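Hi,

I'm pasting everything inline rather than attaching a file, because the server keeps stripping attachments. The sequence lines come first, and each chain or strand is labelled.
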Amino acid sequence: DAKTTQPTSMDCAEGRAANLPCNHSTISGNEYVYWYRQIHSQGPQYIIHGLKNNETNEMASLIITEDRKSSTLILPHATLRDTAVYYCIVVLTGGGNKLTFGTGTQLKVEL
Amino acid sequence: EPEVTQTPSHQVTQMGQEVILRCVPISNHLYFYWYRQILGQKVEFLVSFYNNEISEKSEIFDDQFSVERPDGSNFTLKIRSTKLEDSAMYFCASRPRTSGGYNEQFFGPGTRLTVL
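And the predicted assembly:
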């Protein structure tokens, strides 16, 4: 699986958009970009995934660059409950693929 | 909303003892996983299980570890002779059978294993 690089930490004011970047410059054509988060030692939680098109769901939006070498997770109106470690993971399609977690980005949402 | 459950939430054991960590995946899911997270470190993949057999395992998952789906609902992780370095949070996850790149894994709340 391709390696990802994320900033160690970010801060965001409550109510503002949180934009979390991820670099995955060695991603291959059959690898998806997944985002999970982990709130204080709870089990990781799926947020969103994409291949090459931008995606949006009730939790977040995912913007993938045209060359697919980087992406940005957007939480449009961050709340205190969004404080968590956010993981960008590249996953090969098909099969029962394992998730390879990096160190992620610690997002702190403050008043 | 269905969820993955794990028991116990905290297990304390003596070094060398056997432990069994239990998970009940979401009922229509077909792929099952165990991950662990040593305090302050990354979440690490241990093993994946599909169609009643291991489909992939990591280097961590040595002969001391085994998994089983004994009755169609539970999914267990056994550590035969625990070591101090096995102390960690163990997460079970499951996912349904899907096509394409969909790989949403649903994680349980974890079992904290403390080996003394």
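Chain A has a mean pLDDT of 93.

If the labels don't parse on your end, tell me and I'll reformat.
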